[in-house]
Design goal:
The chain is α+β, with helices and mostly antiparallel strands and 343 residues long. It is built from 10 helices and 16 strands. The protein has a 16-stranded mixed β-sheet, sandwiched between helices. The chain is elongated and about 80 Å long. The mean pLDDT is 90.
Length: 343
C-alpha cells in the first residue's frame, strides 16, 4: 500500500537514489549527499518548530508501507523569498506611442520580479519512473494539500509552483540561449543548479534591472515562454485541475510557467471533509479518495476506494495501520478531481 509520510533521517540513501534518476532535471533534488542531508534536517527542524518562518520547509516521501521503500518525494516551502530573494520574470507590456505621428506600439516585455515573495511554494516533486503507473503521481502531488488543509494556519494566502521549462535531451534551453546566456558566463545547468540549491545572489548581481523586449528574442525562445517540458505536462495538469493558473510569471532560466492559486481556492482543500474512522469490511470499488490522518508529526496520506456512511469512513485493519489511525479517529477525505478517476 502506497503511503505519504514525513521524511526521516534514515531516508538519506533513498533520496540520493531518487536524485540519481532525475537526470539533472530537478535542481532542488541534486545528487549531493551533503545538500540532501541538510534538506532532511531542515524539514525535521520545521516539524519540531525550531526554525523561523523564512527557513521552514516540509519534505514528504511516498513509500510502500510493506517495506518502507521510498519511491517518490515532494515538498512545501512555507514562505519563499524572506531569506534569499525569489526571482522570476513578469511577462508584461510596454506601450510606445506618438499622437503626432499617429504611431502606437504595445510591446511585450520581461521584467525581473519578486512579486511572489512570502508565498508558499510546492516544490521538489519527483516520482521514480518505475512507479509512474496507476495513481501514484496523484497521491504524491495532491497529498500536500491534505497537510495544508489540516494545518492551514502554517501556510500563506498564496501558493505557487514553478514548472520545468522546455529543454532538449542534452539539457539545452532555447530560452536560456536567448536570454540568460547573454548575462551569465556559465552553462544553463550550472545556473539552474545554483538557483535550485539556494545560491541566488548572482541573479541580482548579473541580471538587468530594466525590462527586456520579447521581440528581440529568438523565435525558439519566444515559442517556449510559459511552456513546460514534456515530462512536466502531467504535473501541470494535476495542479490546474486543483485550480492553479498561469498568470504571466515565468522562470528566469528556462521560461517555464509559475502557476499560482489562493490557498483557500485549491479544490482539495476546499472540498475535503473530516470523517470518523470506523473498522469495517471494505470493497475494492468505490470513488477513489485521498484519505489522511490529522496528526502533525505522524502525518499519513493514502489513496483508496472510499466507503462513507453518514459521518464515518469504513477502513479495514490494514488501512488503519497504514494511516497510523484507530477506529474513532478523525480522518480528512477528498475525492480525486474530475477525470482523475479514469484509468
Amino acid at each position: 500500500m502506497m503511503v505519504i509520510r514525513p521524511v526521516e533521517h534514515d531516508d538519506l540513501a533513498q533520496l540520493l537514489s531518487l536524485a540519481k534518476k532525475t537526470d539533472g532535471g530537478l535542481t532542488s533534488l541534486p545528487i549531493d549527499n551533503q545538500f540532501l542531508q541538510s534538506r532532511i534536517e531542515r524539514s525535521l527542524q520545521t516539524w519540531q518548530g525550531s526554525l523561523s518562518l523564512a527557513e521552514q520547509g516540509y519534505v514528504f516521501v511516498l513509500v510502500d508501507s510493506d517495506n518502507n521503500r521510498a519511491i517518490g518525494v515532494s515538498a512545501i516551502e512555507v514562505a519563499v523569498g524572506l531569506q534569499e530573494p525569489w526571482y522570476n520574470f513578469r511577462v508584461g507590456t510596454q506601450v510606445h506611442a506618438s499622437k503626432k505621428l499617429n504611431v502606437y506600439a504595445a510591446l511585450p516585455t520581461l521584467s525581473l520580479s519578486n512579486d511572489h515573495t512570502g508565498s508558499s511554494e510546492l516544490c521538489t516533486l519527483f516520482l521514480d519512473p518505475d512507479y509512474r503507473d496507476g495513481k501514484n503521481g496523484y497521491l504524491l502531488s495532491k497529498s500536500r494539500f491534505m497537510f495544508m488543509a489540516n494545518f492551514r494556519h502554517l501556510f500563506m494566502e498564496r501558493v505557487v509552483a514553478e514548472m520545468r521549462g522546455v529543454s532538449d535531451e542534452y539539457g539545452h534551453s532555447p530560452f536560456w540561449e536567448s536570454v540568460g546566456n547573454r548575462f551569465f558566463s556559465m552553462e544553463f545547468r550550472k545556473a539552474d543548479f545554483l538557483s535550485g540549491t539556494g545560491q541566488k545572489a548572482f541573479i541580482a548581481e548579473l541580471m538587468p534591472k530594466h525590462p527586456l523586449y520579447i521581440d528581440y528574442l529568438s523565435p525558439e525562445a519566444k515559442a517556449v515562454i510559459g511552456q513546460v517540458h514534456a515530462k512536466t505536462l502531467p504535473a501541470r495538469a494535476v495542479l490546474e485541475a486543483e485550480g492553479f493558473r498561469y498568470r504571466n510569471y515565468i522562470d528566469i532560466f528556462d521560461g517555464g510557467p509559475t502557476l499560482e492559486c489562493d490557498i483557500d481556492n485549491i479544490r482539495a482543500i476546499r472540498k475535503s471533509h473530516i470523517y470518523s474512522a470506523a473498522l469495517g469490511d471494505t470493497k475494492e470499488y468505490g470513488p477513489l479518495c485521498l484519505v489522511a490522518n490529522v496528526s502533525y508529526n505522524c502525518f499519513r496520506v493514502t489513496l483508496l476506494p472510499a466507503h462513507i456512511e453518514k459521518d464515518e469512513i469504513l477502513l479495514n485493519k490494514y488501512q488503519l495501520k497504514a494511516l497510523h489511525a484507530q477506529s474513532g479517529d478523525s480522518l480528512r477525505v477528498v475525492m480525486l478531481g474530475y477525470g482523475d478517476n479514469k484509468a
